[in-house]
Write a structure and sequence with these properties.
homotrimer; 7% helix; 1 helix; mainly beta; 6-stranded antiparallel sheet; 60% strand
Chain lengths: 157, 157, 157
Protein backbone atom coordinates (compact mmCIF):
# COMPACT_ATOMS: atom_id res chain seq x y z
CA UNK A 1 0.00 0.00 0.00
CA UNK A 2 1.20 3.49 -0.80
CA UNK A 3 1.58 5.51 2.39
CA UNK A 4 0.73 9.18 2.02
CA UNK A 5 2.30 11.52 4.53
CA UNK A 6 3.36 15.13 4.89
CA UNK A 7 6.72 15.99 3.35
CA UNK A 8 8.97 18.92 2.57
CA UNK A 9 11.29 18.86 -0.42
CA UNK A 10 13.73 21.47 -1.64
CA UNK A 11 13.78 22.09 -5.38
CA UNK A 12 14.73 24.78 -7.85
CA UNK A 13 12.69 26.59 -10.47
CA UNK A 14 14.46 25.57 -13.66
CA UNK A 15 13.08 26.84 -16.98
CA UNK A 16 9.97 28.81 -17.68
CA UNK A 17 7.92 27.67 -20.64
CA UNK A 18 5.87 30.50 -22.14
CA UNK A 19 3.00 29.34 -24.30
CA UNK A 20 -0.03 30.78 -26.01
CA UNK A 21 -2.85 28.34 -26.62
CA UNK A 22 -5.33 28.98 -29.42
CA UNK A 23 -9.14 29.02 -29.67
CA UNK A 24 -10.51 25.48 -29.47
CA UNK A 25 -7.45 23.94 -27.84
CA UNK A 26 -8.15 21.41 -25.10
CA UNK A 27 -6.47 22.77 -21.97
CA UNK A 28 -5.48 19.44 -20.37
CA UNK A 29 -4.32 17.83 -23.62
CA UNK A 30 -2.30 20.94 -24.52
CA UNK A 31 -0.49 20.98 -21.19
CA UNK A 32 0.21 17.23 -21.31
CA UNK A 33 1.54 17.56 -24.87
CA UNK A 34 3.86 20.42 -23.85
CA UNK A 35 5.11 18.35 -20.91
CA UNK A 36 5.76 15.27 -23.05
CA UNK A 37 7.17 17.03 -26.14
CA UNK A 38 9.60 18.98 -23.98
CA UNK A 39 10.40 16.14 -21.56
CA UNK A 40 9.19 18.14 -18.57
CA UNK A 41 8.56 15.72 -15.73
CA UNK A 42 7.43 18.12 -13.04
CA UNK A 43 5.95 21.58 -13.41
CA UNK A 44 3.73 24.24 -11.92
CA UNK A 45 1.49 26.93 -13.33
CA UNK A 46 3.42 30.12 -12.57
CA UNK A 47 1.06 32.45 -14.43
CA UNK A 48 -2.09 32.02 -16.54
CA UNK A 49 -4.52 34.46 -18.09
CA UNK A 50 -7.02 34.10 -20.92
CA UNK A 51 -10.54 32.77 -21.45
CA UNK A 52 -12.19 29.35 -21.40
CA UNK A 53 -15.40 27.70 -22.62
CA UNK A 54 -17.08 24.28 -22.22
CA UNK A 55 -15.73 23.80 -18.73
CA UNK A 56 -16.45 20.93 -16.34
CA UNK A 57 -15.43 21.25 -12.73
CA UNK A 58 -16.25 19.72 -9.34
CA UNK A 59 -16.67 21.03 -5.83
CA UNK A 60 -17.22 19.25 -2.56
CA UNK A 61 -20.58 19.08 -0.79
CA UNK A 62 -20.90 20.78 2.63
CA UNK A 63 -20.37 18.51 5.67
CA UNK A 64 -18.36 16.03 3.62
CA UNK A 65 -15.85 14.10 5.69
CA UNK A 66 -12.91 11.91 4.77
CA UNK A 67 -12.71 9.43 3.15
CA UNK A 68 -14.38 11.46 0.38
CA UNK A 69 -16.90 9.43 -1.63
CA UNK A 70 -17.81 9.95 -5.28
CA UNK A 71 -21.27 11.23 -4.33
CA UNK A 72 -19.70 13.96 -2.16
CA UNK A 73 -18.46 15.73 -5.27
CA UNK A 74 -20.81 17.89 -7.32
CA UNK A 75 -20.00 18.21 -11.00
CA UNK A 76 -20.86 21.42 -12.82
CA UNK A 77 -20.76 21.84 -16.60
CA UNK A 78 -20.89 25.32 -18.09
CA UNK A 79 -20.69 26.43 -21.73
CA UNK A 80 -19.41 29.93 -20.93
CA UNK A 81 -17.36 31.52 -22.33
CA UNK A 82 -15.63 32.88 -19.25
CA UNK A 83 -12.62 35.03 -18.50
CA UNK A 84 -9.98 32.78 -16.93
CA UNK A 85 -9.24 34.74 -13.76
CA UNK A 86 -6.94 32.25 -12.08
CA UNK A 87 -5.46 28.87 -12.90
CA UNK A 88 -3.55 27.15 -10.12
CA UNK A 89 -1.94 23.78 -10.16
CA UNK A 90 0.81 21.46 -11.14
CA UNK A 91 1.75 18.27 -12.92
CA UNK A 92 3.79 15.44 -11.47
CA UNK A 93 4.36 11.95 -12.88
CA UNK A 94 2.09 9.08 -11.90
CA UNK A 95 3.98 6.58 -9.75
CA UNK A 96 2.36 3.79 -11.76
CA UNK A 97 3.21 4.70 -15.35
CA UNK A 98 5.11 8.01 -15.30
CA UNK A 99 2.39 9.83 -17.24
CA UNK A 100 1.89 13.48 -16.19
CA UNK A 101 -1.01 13.92 -13.75
CA UNK A 102 -2.34 17.43 -14.31
CA UNK A 103 -4.08 18.91 -11.25
CA UNK A 104 -5.79 22.25 -11.94
CA UNK A 105 -8.18 24.58 -10.13
CA UNK A 106 -9.78 27.35 -12.19
CA UNK A 107 -11.61 30.56 -11.30
CA UNK A 108 -13.87 31.98 -13.99
CA UNK A 109 -15.51 35.39 -14.42
CA UNK A 110 -19.11 35.60 -15.62
CA UNK A 111 -20.95 38.40 -17.40
CA UNK A 112 -22.85 39.36 -14.22
CA UNK A 113 -19.56 39.95 -12.45
CA UNK A 114 -19.92 36.90 -10.24
CA UNK A 115 -17.20 34.33 -10.19
CA UNK A 116 -17.43 30.53 -10.46
CA UNK A 117 -14.94 27.70 -10.44
CA UNK A 118 -13.64 24.52 -8.91
CA UNK A 119 -11.40 21.51 -9.41
CA UNK A 120 -11.16 21.47 -13.19
CA UNK A 121 -11.92 18.31 -15.18
CA UNK A 122 -12.21 19.70 -18.70
CA UNK A 123 -11.87 23.04 -20.49
CA UNK A 124 -11.47 24.44 -23.97
CA UNK A 125 -9.61 27.65 -24.76
CA UNK A 126 -12.00 30.40 -25.91
CA UNK A 127 -9.85 33.25 -27.28
CA UNK A 128 -6.44 32.64 -25.77
CA UNK A 129 -4.55 31.19 -22.83
CA UNK A 130 -1.25 32.84 -21.96
CA UNK A 131 0.37 30.29 -19.68
CA UNK A 132 3.78 30.34 -18.08
CA UNK A 133 4.83 26.95 -16.75
CA UNK A 134 7.71 26.56 -14.35
CA UNK A 135 9.74 23.36 -14.55
CA UNK A 136 11.11 21.89 -11.31
CA UNK A 137 14.67 20.67 -10.86
CA UNK A 138 15.73 18.45 -7.98
CA UNK A 139 12.28 17.07 -7.21
CA UNK A 140 11.43 13.39 -6.86
CA UNK A 141 7.77 13.88 -6.01
CA UNK A 142 5.19 11.55 -7.58
CA UNK A 143 1.42 11.17 -7.68
CA UNK A 144 -0.41 8.08 -6.47
CA UNK A 145 -4.03 7.27 -5.75
CA UNK A 146 -5.08 7.90 -2.15
CA UNK A 147 -7.76 5.82 -0.46
CA UNK A 148 -8.55 8.80 1.73
CA UNK A 149 -9.31 11.40 -0.91
CA UNK A 150 -10.05 9.20 -3.95
CA UNK A 151 -7.68 11.42 -5.94
CA UNK A 152 -4.09 11.22 -7.10
CA UNK A 153 -2.10 12.78 -4.27
CA UNK A 154 1.51 13.96 -3.97
CA UNK A 155 4.08 11.78 -2.29
CA UNK A 156 7.84 11.96 -1.98
CA UNK A 157 9.65 9.37 -4.14
CA UNK B 1 -1.06 41.04 -41.48
CA UNK B 2 0.18 39.75 -38.13
CA UNK B 3 -0.36 35.99 -37.93
CA UNK B 4 -1.23 34.77 -34.46
CA UNK B 5 -0.46 31.14 -33.75
CA UNK B 6 0.31 28.83 -30.88
CA UNK B 7 3.92 28.86 -29.70
CA UNK B 8 6.18 27.55 -26.98
CA UNK B 9 9.20 29.52 -25.83
CA UNK B 10 11.79 28.66 -23.20
CA UNK B 11 12.79 31.47 -20.89
CA UNK B 12 14.25 32.00 -17.44
CA UNK B 13 12.92 33.82 -14.43
CA UNK B 14 15.48 36.59 -13.95
CA UNK B 15 14.98 39.07 -11.11
CA UNK B 16 12.09 39.47 -8.77
CA UNK B 17 10.93 43.02 -8.15
CA UNK B 18 9.25 43.41 -4.77
CA UNK B 19 7.09 46.48 -4.47
CA UNK B 20 4.58 47.98 -2.11
CA UNK B 21 2.11 50.38 -3.68
CA UNK B 22 0.42 53.01 -1.53
CA UNK B 23 -3.19 54.14 -1.01
CA UNK B 24 -4.45 56.04 -4.07
CA UNK B 25 -1.85 54.67 -6.50
CA UNK B 26 -3.15 53.77 -9.96
CA UNK B 27 -2.39 50.08 -10.43
CA UNK B 28 -1.73 50.10 -14.18
CA UNK B 29 0.30 53.32 -14.15
CA UNK B 30 2.36 52.07 -11.20
CA UNK B 31 3.23 48.80 -12.94
CA UNK B 32 4.08 50.56 -16.23
CA UNK B 33 6.29 53.04 -14.35
CA UNK B 34 8.14 50.22 -12.57
CA UNK B 35 8.66 48.46 -15.90
CA UNK B 36 9.97 51.59 -17.62
CA UNK B 37 12.08 52.98 -14.74
CA UNK B 38 13.77 49.60 -14.31
CA UNK B 39 14.01 48.78 -18.03
CA UNK B 40 11.99 45.60 -17.58
CA UNK B 41 10.72 44.55 -20.99
CA UNK B 42 8.83 41.41 -20.08
CA UNK B 43 7.37 40.40 -16.75
CA UNK B 44 4.74 38.42 -14.92
CA UNK B 45 2.85 38.85 -11.68
CA UNK B 46 4.39 36.19 -9.45
CA UNK B 47 2.51 37.19 -6.29
CA UNK B 48 0.04 39.94 -5.37
CA UNK B 49 -1.98 40.65 -2.27
CA UNK B 50 -3.65 43.82 -0.98
CA UNK B 51 -6.84 45.78 -1.55
CA UNK B 52 -8.31 47.82 -4.41
CA UNK B 53 -11.03 50.42 -4.97
CA UNK B 54 -12.62 52.17 -7.97
CA UNK B 55 -12.22 49.15 -10.20
CA UNK B 56 -13.43 48.72 -13.78
CA UNK B 57 -13.41 45.27 -15.33
CA UNK B 58 -15.03 43.39 -18.20
CA UNK B 59 -16.40 39.91 -18.68
CA UNK B 60 -17.73 38.18 -21.77
CA UNK B 61 -21.42 37.61 -22.43
CA UNK B 62 -22.69 33.98 -22.54
CA UNK B 63 -22.88 32.40 -26.04
CA UNK B 64 -20.31 34.84 -27.41
CA UNK B 65 -18.37 33.41 -30.34
CA UNK B 66 -15.21 34.53 -32.06
CA UNK B 67 -14.50 37.06 -33.48
CA UNK B 68 -15.45 38.78 -30.23
CA UNK B 69 -17.28 42.08 -30.80
CA UNK B 70 -17.22 45.11 -28.51
CA UNK B 71 -20.87 44.53 -27.52
CA UNK B 72 -20.03 41.01 -26.34
CA UNK B 73 -18.09 42.45 -23.43
CA UNK B 74 -19.90 43.71 -20.32
CA UNK B 75 -18.18 46.44 -18.36
CA UNK B 76 -18.65 46.61 -14.60
CA UNK B 77 -17.57 49.54 -12.45
CA UNK B 78 -17.44 49.14 -8.68
CA UNK B 79 -16.32 51.60 -5.99
CA UNK B 80 -15.43 48.91 -3.44
CA UNK B 81 -13.14 48.81 -1.59
CA UNK B 82 -12.31 45.13 -2.03
CA UNK B 83 -9.70 42.72 -0.78
CA UNK B 84 -7.48 41.85 -3.76
CA UNK B 85 -7.68 38.06 -3.63
CA UNK B 86 -5.81 37.29 -6.84
CA UNK B 87 -4.03 39.25 -9.55
CA UNK B 88 -2.85 37.28 -12.55
CA UNK B 89 -1.17 38.56 -15.63
CA UNK B 90 1.82 39.82 -17.45
CA UNK B 91 3.32 42.63 -19.48
CA UNK B 92 5.01 42.28 -22.83
CA UNK B 93 6.07 45.03 -25.25
CA UNK B 94 3.73 46.16 -28.01
CA UNK B 95 5.08 45.09 -31.41
CA UNK B 96 4.16 48.53 -32.72
CA UNK B 97 5.89 50.90 -30.31
CA UNK B 98 7.59 48.78 -27.62
CA UNK B 99 5.42 50.20 -24.83
CA UNK B 100 4.50 47.67 -22.09
CA UNK B 101 1.05 46.13 -22.61
CA UNK B 102 -0.23 45.22 -19.15
CA UNK B 103 -2.76 42.35 -19.14
CA UNK B 104 -4.37 41.76 -15.74
CA UNK B 105 -7.24 39.68 -14.35
CA UNK B 106 -8.34 40.46 -10.79
CA UNK B 107 -10.46 38.62 -8.24
CA UNK B 108 -11.99 40.73 -5.49
CA UNK B 109 -13.57 39.84 -2.15
CA UNK B 110 -16.74 41.64 -1.06
CA UNK B 111 -18.17 42.22 2.44
CA UNK B 112 -20.87 39.56 1.92
CA UNK B 113 -18.17 36.98 1.27
CA UNK B 114 -18.99 36.70 -2.41
CA UNK B 115 -16.27 37.24 -4.95
CA UNK B 116 -16.29 39.38 -8.11
CA UNK B 117 -13.78 40.10 -10.85
CA UNK B 118 -12.79 40.02 -14.47
CA UNK B 119 -10.40 41.37 -17.06
CA UNK B 120 -9.17 44.50 -15.31
CA UNK B 121 -9.27 47.90 -17.04
CA UNK B 122 -8.68 50.24 -14.12
CA UNK B 123 -8.01 50.03 -10.39
CA UNK B 124 -6.76 52.17 -7.53
CA UNK B 125 -4.88 50.82 -4.53
CA UNK B 126 -7.00 51.04 -1.35
CA UNK B 127 -4.68 50.27 1.60
CA UNK B 128 -1.75 48.45 0.02
CA UNK B 129 -0.63 46.23 -2.84
CA UNK B 130 2.26 43.88 -2.13
CA UNK B 131 3.31 42.81 -5.61
CA UNK B 132 6.17 40.59 -6.65
CA UNK B 133 6.96 40.86 -10.35
CA UNK B 134 9.12 38.34 -12.12
CA UNK B 135 11.25 39.54 -15.01
CA UNK B 136 11.78 37.20 -17.97
CA UNK B 137 15.14 36.55 -19.59
CA UNK B 138 15.49 34.95 -23.01
CA UNK B 139 12.02 35.83 -24.24
CA UNK B 140 11.25 37.53 -27.56
CA UNK B 141 7.47 37.48 -27.18
CA UNK B 142 5.49 40.56 -28.23
CA UNK B 143 1.90 41.76 -28.11
CA UNK B 144 -0.07 42.71 -31.25
CA UNK B 145 -3.73 43.38 -31.97
CA UNK B 146 -5.69 40.32 -33.03
CA UNK B 147 -8.64 40.56 -35.40
CA UNK B 148 -10.09 37.46 -33.76
CA UNK B 149 -10.22 38.62 -30.17
CA UNK B 150 -10.04 42.40 -30.58
CA UNK B 151 -7.34 42.42 -27.93
CA UNK B 152 -3.58 42.62 -27.86
CA UNK B 153 -2.45 38.98 -28.02
CA UNK B 154 0.91 37.28 -27.49
CA UNK B 155 3.04 36.30 -30.45
CA UNK B 156 6.56 35.02 -30.80
CA UNK B 157 8.94 37.64 -32.22
CA UNK C 1 7.27 56.14 14.37
CA UNK C 2 7.59 53.70 11.52
CA UNK C 3 7.16 55.49 8.22
CA UNK C 4 5.47 53.39 5.55
CA UNK C 5 6.16 54.39 1.97
CA UNK C 6 6.25 52.90 -1.51
CA UNK C 7 9.42 51.02 -2.39
CA UNK C 8 10.95 48.82 -5.05
CA UNK C 9 13.48 46.16 -4.17
CA UNK C 10 15.32 43.73 -6.43
CA UNK C 11 15.55 40.17 -5.18
CA UNK C 12 16.04 36.65 -6.50
CA UNK C 13 13.89 33.57 -6.23
CA UNK C 14 16.14 31.22 -4.32
CA UNK C 15 14.82 27.74 -3.44
CA UNK C 16 11.40 26.30 -3.94
CA UNK C 17 9.98 24.34 -1.02
CA UNK C 18 7.47 21.73 -2.14
CA UNK C 19 5.18 20.52 0.61
CA UNK C 20 2.08 18.45 1.04
CA UNK C 21 0.02 19.20 4.11
CA UNK C 22 -2.26 16.54 5.54
CA UNK C 23 -5.90 16.44 6.63
CA UNK C 24 -6.40 18.40 9.86
CA UNK C 25 -3.20 20.45 9.57
CA UNK C 26 -3.51 24.10 10.58
CA UNK C 27 -2.53 26.12 7.49
CA UNK C 28 -0.90 29.09 9.26
CA UNK C 29 0.91 26.99 11.85
CA UNK C 30 2.19 24.62 9.16
CA UNK C 31 3.59 27.45 7.05
CA UNK C 32 5.21 29.13 10.07
CA UNK C 33 6.75 25.82 11.13
CA UNK C 34 8.18 25.22 7.64
CA UNK C 35 9.62 28.75 7.65
CA UNK C 36 11.22 28.35 11.08
CA UNK C 37 12.44 24.74 10.71
CA UNK C 38 14.09 25.59 7.40
CA UNK C 39 15.32 29.06 8.43
CA UNK C 40 13.38 30.73 5.64
CA UNK C 41 13.10 34.41 6.49
CA UNK C 42 11.16 35.64 3.48
CA UNK C 43 8.91 33.71 1.13
CA UNK C 44 5.97 33.79 -1.21
CA UNK C 45 3.27 31.33 -2.21
CA UNK C 46 4.28 30.38 -5.75
CA UNK C 47 1.59 27.70 -6.20
CA UNK C 48 -1.13 26.20 -4.01
CA UNK C 49 -3.93 23.75 -4.67
CA UNK C 50 -5.97 21.56 -2.35
CA UNK C 51 -8.98 21.87 -0.07
CA UNK C 52 -9.72 23.64 3.21
CA UNK C 53 -12.29 23.49 6.01
CA UNK C 54 -13.12 25.57 9.13
CA UNK C 55 -12.03 28.81 7.51
CA UNK C 56 -12.25 32.31 8.96
CA UNK C 57 -11.68 35.28 6.69
CA UNK C 58 -12.41 39.00 6.59
CA UNK C 59 -13.49 41.43 3.91
CA UNK C 60 -13.90 45.18 4.01
CA UNK C 61 -17.26 46.94 4.17
CA UNK C 62 -18.30 49.11 1.18
CA UNK C 63 -17.53 52.85 1.50
CA UNK C 64 -14.78 52.19 4.04
CA UNK C 65 -12.09 54.85 3.99
CA UNK C 66 -8.63 55.00 5.50
CA UNK C 67 -7.67 54.77 8.34
CA UNK C 68 -9.52 51.43 8.37
CA UNK C 69 -11.26 50.76 11.69
CA UNK C 70 -11.93 47.36 13.25
CA UNK C 71 -15.68 47.71 12.62
CA UNK C 72 -15.03 48.22 8.88
CA UNK C 73 -13.97 44.58 8.56
CA UNK C 74 -16.58 41.83 8.36
CA UNK C 75 -15.52 38.43 9.64
CA UNK C 76 -16.96 35.31 8.03
CA UNK C 77 -16.60 31.81 9.47
CA UNK C 78 -17.45 28.81 7.28
CA UNK C 79 -17.17 25.09 8.03
CA UNK C 80 -16.89 24.04 4.39
CA UNK C 81 -15.16 21.97 3.21
CA UNK C 82 -14.11 23.92 0.12
CA UNK C 83 -11.83 23.41 -2.83
CA UNK C 84 -8.88 25.79 -2.38
CA UNK C 85 -8.95 27.58 -5.74
CA UNK C 86 -6.29 30.17 -5.05
CA UNK C 87 -3.94 31.04 -2.22
CA UNK C 88 -1.94 34.22 -2.61
CA UNK C 89 0.44 35.76 -0.20
CA UNK C 90 3.77 35.94 1.50
CA UNK C 91 5.63 35.91 4.79
CA UNK C 92 8.16 38.46 5.93
CA UNK C 93 9.70 38.90 9.38
CA UNK C 94 8.14 41.23 11.90
CA UNK C 95 10.36 44.27 12.48
CA UNK C 96 9.69 43.93 16.20
CA UNK C 97 10.63 40.31 16.93
CA UNK C 98 11.65 38.68 13.63
CA UNK C 99 8.76 36.20 13.76
CA UNK C 100 7.27 35.35 10.33
CA UNK C 101 4.14 37.38 9.56
CA UNK C 102 2.04 35.25 7.22
CA UNK C 103 -0.31 37.27 4.96
CA UNK C 104 -2.72 35.10 2.96
CA UNK C 105 -5.78 35.65 0.76
CA UNK C 106 -7.80 32.56 -0.15
CA UNK C 107 -10.45 31.85 -2.78
CA UNK C 108 -12.72 28.89 -2.09
CA UNK C 109 -15.10 26.93 -4.33
CA UNK C 110 -18.51 25.90 -2.98
CA UNK C 111 -20.81 23.05 -4.00
CA UNK C 112 -23.17 25.43 -5.81
CA UNK C 113 -20.32 26.57 -8.03
CA UNK C 114 -20.12 29.99 -6.42
CA UNK C 115 -16.86 31.20 -5.00
CA UNK C 116 -16.13 32.81 -1.64
CA UNK C 117 -13.03 34.12 0.08
CA UNK C 118 -11.13 36.96 1.63
CA UNK C 119 -8.19 37.89 3.83
CA UNK C 120 -7.57 34.60 5.62
CA UNK C 121 -7.35 34.43 9.42
CA UNK C 122 -7.63 30.67 10.03
CA UNK C 123 -7.96 27.49 7.98
CA UNK C 124 -7.57 23.75 8.37
CA UNK C 125 -6.49 21.42 5.56
CA UNK C 126 -9.38 19.17 4.44
CA UNK C 127 -7.89 16.51 2.14
CA UNK C 128 -4.59 17.99 1.02
CA UNK C 129 -2.69 21.20 0.35
CA UNK C 130 0.00 21.02 -2.33
CA UNK C 131 1.97 24.19 -1.70
CA UNK C 132 5.10 25.44 -3.40
CA UNK C 133 6.81 28.21 -1.49
CA UNK C 134 9.47 30.39 -3.05
CA UNK C 135 12.23 31.70 -0.81
CA UNK C 136 13.60 35.18 -1.48
CA UNK C 137 17.29 36.03 -1.61
CA UNK C 138 18.59 39.58 -1.39
CA UNK C 139 15.53 41.05 0.30
CA UNK C 140 15.60 43.19 3.45
CA UNK C 141 11.85 43.84 3.58
CA UNK C 142 10.10 43.69 6.96
CA UNK C 143 6.56 43.93 8.30
CA UNK C 144 5.44 46.54 10.81
CA UNK C 145 2.10 47.72 12.11
CA UNK C 146 0.59 50.59 10.13
CA UNK C 147 -1.65 53.18 11.76
CA UNK C 148 -3.37 53.68 8.42
CA UNK C 149 -4.49 50.13 7.71
CA UNK C 150 -4.37 48.59 11.20
CA UNK C 151 -2.43 45.69 9.69
CA UNK C 152 1.18 44.62 9.45
CA UNK C 153 2.45 46.26 6.26
CA UNK C 154 5.61 45.81 4.19
CA UNK C 155 8.47 48.22 4.53
CA UNK C 156 12.02 48.29 3.25
CA UNK C 157 14.60 47.61 5.95
Amino acid sequence: MTVHEAFIENAKLDNLVITRLMPGDDLFESLKKIAKDNTIERGIIVSAIGSLKDVVFVNVRPQTGIPVKAEDMIEIEEAGPFELLSLEGNFFPSQEDGEPVVHLHAILGTSSGTVTGGHLLKATVFTTAEIILGTLAGSSVYKAKSDVTQRMELLKG
